[in-house]
Each structure stands twice: as structure tokens, then as C-alpha cells.
Amino acid sequence: MRKGLSCIGLWLCLLLIIGCSNSDSQPENVEVYLEANTDRVLLKEEGGTAYINIASNTRWTILVENDEIPVIDLDVTPLAGDGDGTIKITYGREINKVQCEHATLIFYYYSEGKRVSKEVILTRQENDGNKDEEGWKTFTTFAKATNSFPATFKTMDGYKLIPTAISIFSTPGDVYYIAGQYKDSMFDIEKKEIHLELLSDPVCISGLSIGFESVDAYPSNAPFHSSNYNEVKPVLFDEHTIIIPMFFWVASTTDAIQEELKRHSFMLVYDSNGNSDSNLGLCLLHNVSDDEYRIRTLYTVQYCAFDIASAISRFESEKGNKPSRMTIEYKVNSLSDRLEDARIEKYTLDYKFQ
Q1: Among candidates 143, 156, 284, 298, which has minimal Cα distance to 205?
Q2: Cα separation of 344 and 354, whole Å?
Q3: Measuring CA to CA, which residue among 192, 201, 353, 229 is closest to residue 303?
Q4: Which of 317, 325, 332, 230 is nearest to 281 (CA)?
Q5: What CATH number should be reported for the domain holding residue 154?
């Protein structure tokens, strides 16, 4: 089972995009649209080139997810456009013969002031028509490991996930990102159990620490790109675990992204100054270890799970009660990777475990 030096990217896998675009001005009563000629591109074993045709009447950007079972030498151009366009995709030969190499292109645009997304899957695996007829359902979720081997997991809402692949190992207590599929016959509602076929290895997102010294005692030399918490938000998996999406600047193309990600580390710090009688204050820090100067003009997102049991315990000993909410403070710069020009933002969520 894979575990990163700081945290492992998901999303749901690697995500790269050029900037965030603001909502586009459109004439009143004109419906904004973006359509692709396909939602699935089959990649050849020997590598090659593919194209996606876009029909649109607005500006759009593309986020490239290519981290979990990556497609090597993947290049997508352009990563932004206005109106109709053609996306060129070049990619290398298949390396991983055991697991399905795949990537996702996420198109973003604005409609009625809201950010809208559309996905196109790049995959080495052909559609299985028989599975579609049999009613297979695909899903992604976060789940905490409950057994190491054979691996089993439990979701936030209490469902037990039992992979059919018995060779999977996990570390009990760690949180994983899971992509799988199942049929109705594999779903026991009364027992709240799902036997599932994994679409890829579960990705561990745990292993990050909580700091209790002053915020200044910890290294932090980089801002976050943005919060984007209108679409994906920090969430309490349970009373002791919080999952936070990290949007941050990177300086790498997809073929070298793993080396770039190793330079980034994150820490959540208990902030006594940000506490009140009912609010637990936390500071989210981002640090980059560089052996040379790099200009970072792209950004990515990773999901990271923090064990906050010690922070809850410290708060309870100081205040005599558990918090009713939590506030996360972090520094954001959506224009560049300069910490000096960053602004402070905060995100508050309810803590309902009393």
C-alpha cells in the first residue's frame, strides 16, 4: 500500500491546471454551455495522439488528474480556451500491465456565476458492455481501514467495504481513497456491507501530524493557491479525523510530478490564540523544500487526512468541554507562489461529536 512522504495525491489522483478563471460575462438570457464529443478516450498500448472536440460559448480551463495509476508522458494542450476548440492529447506507451492506467480531464467553466465542471476519462481499459448490462455501479469514497489482510474498510456513513481482491493490504486506522464498482447483488443493505471490485489500489491519505508549539516554530514558506471550498470542502470523517483538500502551486509537468510533490509538506497546528470557549483554532501550513529556485505556475490538489484526537483532548483540558466548531486558518495567493503577497483566509465547520 502506498504512503507518501507528506501526503498522497488523489482525486481523486494528480491534478494540474493553469490558474483559476473568473466568471465570464455573458449576455442576459443566453444559456452557457460546454459539450465534448466524448466522455471517454481509449488510449493505445503503444502510445499515440488523441483529440477531443469542444463545443462551447464561454471560457473554460482544464484540470488534469494523472497521479494514481498515471499515464506516462501525458501532455494536454491547450489547458484553457474560449468557445469551440480542439484538445490535443499525446501520451506514452503502457507501462503498468497489472492495473489500469488512467487520467481524468476536468473542464471548468462558469454559468450563472457558479463554477461548473465536466469530466472526460482517459483510460487503457475498454468498456465492458456485459458489465454495463449487469448493472455495475462505480463510485469513489473515503474509508478508514478496519483490517490489514484481507483489507476491509468502513465509510463515514458506516458501510463496510470488502474488496474482492484478497491481495490488498491496508493499515487499520488509516484513511484511504477508494475507487470501485459493485452490482446490487453485492450490496447487503441490512448488514451495510458492499463487496466491491477495486478499480485501482486504495490510496492512503493519512500520516500527517498536528503541531502544538507556536505557529512560528514550524517551517512555512509557501501559500496555498486557493481554497475552492465551494466545490470540495474539509470534512470530519469522524470525531478524530479531518480530511482537507490542499490546493497548491507546483512547478512540474506530469512526467516529473512525483518528484515535485516530494518537495511539499503540510502541517496542521493547534492555535491557542485562535481558540474560544466553543471554537477550536487550527493553522494549516505549507512548506516547500527546494534545492534550487523554481517558478511555480501550475497548481494541483491533494486530499490529506489529519488525526485531531490530540487537539480535541488539549482543547477539552483547557476549556472543560469539547468544541462545537473548528476554524482552519491558511494563507492564500491565487496569483503567484509568493508567500509575501498572500492573504489570510479561514474556513469554519461544525464539530458535532459531543
Answers
A1: 143
A2: 29
A3: 229
A4: 325
A5: 2.40.50.500
Task: Write out pLDDT tens, residues 40-82.
Answer: 888 888 888 888 888 888 999 999 998 877 888 899 999 988 8
Tell me whether residue 328 is exposed, middle or buried, using C-beta atoms within 10 angstroms of its C-beta: 0 to 12, 13 to 18, 19 or more: buried
Within 13 Å and on the Cβ side, how many CA atoms surround 185? 3
- Residue 26: all three cell numbers together: 455573458
Is there a single domain that holds both residue 345 and residue 218? Answer: yes
Asked if residue 23 belongs to a domain, the reply is: yes
Residue range(s) defining the domain that contains residue 103: 15-123
What single-letter amino acid sits at 99? Q
One domain, residues 31 and 80: yes
Among residues 123, 158, 189, which one ends one of the domains?
123
Overall domain count for the chain: 3
Q: What is the CATH number of the domain that holds 217?
A: 2.60.40.3220
- Burial tier of 213 (Cβ tally within 10 Å: 0-12, 13-18, 19+): exposed
> 133 and 97, same structural domain?
no
∠ Cα 254 259 265 (to 5°): 110
7 belongs to a structural domain:
no
For 167-224, write each residue's pLDDT tens digit. Answer: 678 999 999 998 888 888 888 988 999 999 888 888 899 988 799 988 888 988 899 9
Classify residue 319 as exposed, middle or buried by CB count within 10 Å of its CB (0-12, 13-18, 19+): middle
Strand 160-163 and strand 193-198: pairing?
Answer: parallel
Type of residue numbered 201:
D
H or E element, residue 259? helix 257-261
> Is residue 8 situated within a structural domain?
no
pTM of the model: 0.63
| Pair 179, 214 in one domain | no
Rounded to the nearest angstrom, the gap between the alpha carbon of residue 234 and the centroid of all alpha carbons in its chain is 11
The angle formed by the CA atoms of residues 138, 144 and 145, to the nearest 5 degrees, is 100
All residues at 6 or more sequence positions from 97 whose CB lies less than 8 Å from its CB, including other chains: none
Strand residue runs (E) in 151-221? 152-155, 160-163, 175-182, 187-188, 193-198, 203-204, 210-211
